[in-house]
Write a structure and sequence with these properties.
By secondary structure, the protein is an alpha+beta fold. About 25% of the residues lie in helices and about 30% in strands. It contains seven helices and 17 strands. It has a six-stranded antiparallel beta sheet with strand order 1-6-3-4-5-2, with no helix packed on it. Strands 7-15-9-10 form a four-stranded antiparallel beta sheet, with no helix packed on it.
Length: about 325
């Protein structure tokens, strides 16, 4: 399974878009490239290329390193140098290291696949959702939640508290857990309040998540007790290939769902290489979704994705039954 978004993008290429028997033209960098639009000379290794593939990098061609597409303006084969215009077609200007892969006229640009992964993760909600448990100290009134991604919280699923204390030695833990009632409150973003020390505090969320500040109110528990609240949560929007799937809220079983959706999104409305058609067709046949054309491939991928989503949703319902809500307060 993948550890981060970059690994997930690589897995989409490996399992759907770029089969091993359809080797694309590529080389590697002989020198670094800075994230500077004035650094326009790409040093490449010619030993990976045939003369025809090298000629394919003439002016007007596109090369790709990482998620950055570059437009070739000149080719010097004797010096193994390509002069390029950096970060074209809306791709990011990036820093690249020696031996980073250079793709020539890529069929499926990495930035497109990365964006499709982000779209598919975002679209998992509300059918599927992430889950996060937070430990909160109870007190009178509302408690603002100001963690890095707390604005992605949607609703409490369950809450328990160590609210009954026993004398030492009466049981193994010294406490007993019991369910308590909690309420999640949406506040404007930014939100300013005065804390217990009399200091004015402002909570602001400026990331890609919902434009709100969350606060929680806890009922029927004395102040000062630890309450463990499990929340339903939107998946955090990825911003980098280094973002881990754990941080985003992705579970292992969601990976195939995202991958099938990405493949369907990428191939929609376009001709795709024969080897890619055959690769996806074989993958779908293994999953009992036979196909025989590019259009049917897309439909089959979407059907396969729906089946995976239904299975994952059943699992979520079994693990996290919907709480009973009375007067906007969740009881579990």
């Amino acid at each position: 399974m993948s550890n981060n978004i970059g690994n997930l993008v690589d897995r989409v290429y490996r399992e759907y878009l770029e089969p091993n028997d359809d080797v694309q033209s590529f080389s590697v960098l002989r020198d670094t490239l800075d994230a500077d639009s004035t650094d326009t000379i790409v040093q490449y290794e010619s030993e990976y290329l045939t003369s025809e593939e090298e000629d394919a990098m003439e002016a007007g061609a596109f090369i790709e390193v990482g998620k950055e597409l570059m437009l070739v303006t000149d080719l010097n084969t004797s010096a193994e140098q390509i002069t390029v215009k950096r970060a074209v077609r809306g791709t990011p200007l990036e820093t690249h290291a020696i031996d980073d892969l250079i793709k020539i006229n890529p069929v499926f640009p990495r930035k497109n696949v990365f964006d499709a992964v982000c779209d598919q993760i975002k679209n998992l909600y509300p059918t599927l959702f992430a889950v996060e448990t937070k430990s909160i100290t109870s007190k009178t009134g509302y408690i603002p939640l100001d963690g890095a991604n707390d604005n992605y919280l949607i609703a409490p699923i369950k809450a328990i508290s160590q609210y009954t204390d026993f004398s030492a030695g009466s049981d193994e833990t010294g406490t007993i857990f019991a369910g308590v009632a909690v309420e999640l409150v949406d506040l404007p973003n930014p939100f300013t309040y005065t804390n217990a020390s009399g200091t004015e505090v402002t909570v602001t969320y400026s990331n890609n998540g919902p434009n709100k500040v969350n606060a929680i109110q806890i009922y029927n528990v004395d102040a000062g007790h630890q309450v463990h609240v499990t929340f339903k949560k939107k998946f955090v929007t990825p911003t980098s290939e280094d973002d881990t799937l754990t941080t985003i809220g992705m579970e292992d079983e969601y990976e195939p769902i995202v991958m099938a959706g990405v493949a369907a999104q990428i191939i929609a409305g376009r001709d795709i290489p024969t080897a890619t058609v055959e690769n996806i067709t074989q993958a779908m046949q293994i999953q009992n979704f036979p196909v025989n054309s590019a259009t049917n491939i897309r439909n089959s991928l979407l059907s396969y994705q729906r089946v995976l989503i239904q299975q994952a949703r059943k699992d979520l319902r079994a693990r996290f039954p919907e709480p009973v809500t009375i007067n906007k307060i969740s009881y579990t």
